[in-house]
Amino acid sequence: MTTTVRPAKQLDRSIVEGPLSRAVWMLAWPTVLQNLIGGLQGIVDHALVGHLVGYAGNAAIGVAIQIFIVVIAFIMSVFSGMGVLVARFAGANEPEKVNRTVYQAALAALALWALVLAPLGWILAPSLLGAVHAAPAVQAQALPFLRIMFVGSVGMLLFFMVSGALRAAGDARTPLRLGVLLTVLNIACNIVFITGVGPAPRLGTAGAAVGTTVAGLTVSGIAGYLLLSGRLAVRWHRGMDWRPDWGIIRALFRFGLPTGVQGIAMNVAGLLLLRFIGSLGQSAQAQAAYAVGYTELFSFITWTSVGLMSAGATVAGQNLGAQRPDRTVHGVRVAAGIGLGLAATIGLLFLTIPRALLGLFGMTDPVVVTIGVQLLRFLSVSGLFVTVALAYTGGLQGTGDTRSPLYISIASQIIVPLGLCSVIQATRELQPADIWTAILLGHITRCALSVWRFRQGKWRGILVEVEARVPSART
Question: What is the pTM of this model?
Answer without folding.
Answer: 0.74
